[in-house]
């Protein structure tokens, strides 16, 4: 664990970490301090003690690898807490970070930028350190039509299967599409078991973070698709379950994962 160089760029702190990985690769890590207003942190594991914010990051990267998307360091008691970043504000979640009046410093890391052919319909969108390559629809479509349209562009309907990716979805839906938006999440196969478009089940932890309080509620019997519903509930965080036959805006992401 030798050879740590720390450089300060305009906003991002760049840590060049040597020998972090088994293969002794050098990795450049971009870490940004945040006030916790726009980009919030949700704790994903137990805290430990670290002698500095840099040590806190190094330990976080060793223990959680690329799941260390955010970390909180308190220089008063040297507590280091690993987290997941979220684009907020999250009205529906008790983040408890930073502790009010404490010396908690919140950081998030810049995740790798995916390949993206930006000459066509796709462009890069980033928030809180996570970037996605997306096509944004300029019209509304039923859920299954949205899937077909995405597939026709060698892409899938965008699904936010981590809190960081969900944050990109929420940010783009709120600030670019500015209207009700499908996300690739349904319980069409097994009622009440929501599954991402790539077949991965929605985890209980992520479910507790991304649904609007009281959702999914199957208000009508056929609500099997998940949407951001800004029209009805402007600016209020969290997904709603809706009939897949409704027409909403949507986003596509090139097949690759
Ligand atoms: C957050 O915590 C407060 C105080 O403990 C509680 O009243 C509130 O219901 C909690 N909100 C959620 C969404 O859990
Ligand atoms: C360190 O301080 C923070 C902020 O006051 C607090 O939330 C945390 O529990 C403390 N950790 C320990 C180990 O005392
Ligand atoms: C989709 O991928 C196939 C195979 O790589 C390619 O031939 C085709 O042109 C692509 N279609 C679009 C719309 O990009």
TrEMBL record:
The reply on keyword Disulfide bond is yes
**Signal sequence, renumbered to the chain:** 1-26
SUPFAM superfamilies, per the entry: C-type lectin-like, Hairpin loop containing domain-like
Keywords assigned by UniProt, alphabetized: Disulfide bond, Signal
The record's annotation in Gene3D superfamilies points to:
Mannose-Binding Protein A, subunit A (3.10.100.10)
The family database entries (Pfam families) matched by this protein are listed as: Lectin_C (PF00059)
Entry-linked InterPro entries: C-type_lectin-like, C-type_lectin-like/link_sf, C-type_lectin_CS, CTDL_fold
Q: What PROSITE patterns does UniProt report for this protein, alphabetically?
A: C_TYPE_LECTIN_1 (PS00615), C_TYPE_LECTIN_2 (PS50041)
Residue ranges annotated for the C-type lectin domain, each copy included: 133-253
Q: Please give the superkingdom of this protein's source.
A: Eukaryota
Name of the protein? C-type lectin domain-containing protein
Origin organism is Elysia crispata
């Amino acid at each position: 664990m030798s050879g740590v160089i720390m450089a300060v760029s305009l906003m991002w702190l760049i840590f060049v970490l040597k020998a972090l990985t088994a293969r002794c690769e050098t990795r450049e890590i971009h870490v940004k301090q945040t006030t916790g207003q726009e980009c919030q942190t949700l704790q994903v594991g137990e805290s430990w003690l670290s002698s500095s914010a840099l040590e806190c990051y190094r330990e976080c990267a060793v223990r959680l690898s690329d799941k260390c998307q955010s970390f909180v360091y308190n220089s008063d008691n040297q507590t280091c807490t690993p987290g997941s970043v979220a684009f907020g504000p999250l009205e529906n979640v008790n983040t408890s970070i930073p502790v009010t009046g404490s010396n908690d410093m919140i950081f998030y890391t810049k995740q790798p930028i995916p390949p993206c052919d930006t000459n066509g319909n796709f462009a890069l969108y980033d928030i809180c350190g996570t970037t996605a390559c997306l096509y944004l629809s300029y019209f509304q479509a039923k859920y299954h039509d949205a899937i077909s349209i995405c597939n026709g562009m060698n892409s899938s309907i965008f699904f936010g299967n981590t809190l960081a990716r969900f944050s990109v979805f929420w940010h783009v839906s709120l600030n670019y599409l500015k209207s009700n938006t499908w996300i690739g999440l349904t319980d069409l196969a097994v009622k009440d078991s929501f599954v991402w478009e790539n077949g991965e089940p929605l985890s209980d932890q992520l479910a507790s973070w991304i649904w609007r309080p009281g959702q999914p509620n199957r208000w009508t019997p056929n609500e099997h698709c998940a949407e951001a519903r800004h029209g009805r509930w402007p600016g209020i965080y969290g997904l709603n379950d809706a009939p897949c036959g409704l027409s909403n805006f949507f986003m596509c992401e090139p097949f690759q994962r």
